[in-house]
Amino acid sequence: MSVNVRRATTDDIEALVDVRVAFVSEFSDDETDREAIAAYLKRSLTHESFIAWLVIDDGRVVSTSGMVVYERMVRSRGAGIGLEGYILNVYTYPEFRRRGYGALGMAALLDYSREHGIRLTLLATDDGRPMYEKLGFARDDRTYRWWPE
After folding, report:
1. What domains does the chain contain, in order, with CATH numbers?
2. Which one of 4, 83, 90, 132 has the fewest CB atoms closer than 10 angstroms to its CB?
3. Where does the chain show beta strands of DSSP type E?
4. What is the reported pLDDT for 31?
């Protein structure tokens, strides 16, 4: 068996769409718009506003991790560019869970974030919390959410 982790490219859009559809279907009965997801990925992967990693086992994508990257205002002099990463689409197909694949993808994402000074945020599922805590994420009770009606 051969497991590797690599950064996703626009050549991987179909695999990323498949993963996104699988992820959403675990939480919602809504029909997922594959074309809209593919269009988003084509734009955002090209401009590096979304960056993703694939975990591949024997030639099959078994897990992904990704983040939307955006620039924020810096808070202090000399801080350089303030980059934020919002982590999403961390997903492992059910038959491949509990093998460390999610952590492998997240390790690549964290390495990239360290190299580029990206501060990270995420919303965790109950199943994902232990992995994120093990990776050093801390809960922040100051977060509020709002959706337009």
Report:
1. 3-134 (3.40.630.30)
2. 4
3. 3-7, 50-57, 60-72, 82-92, 118-122
4. 82
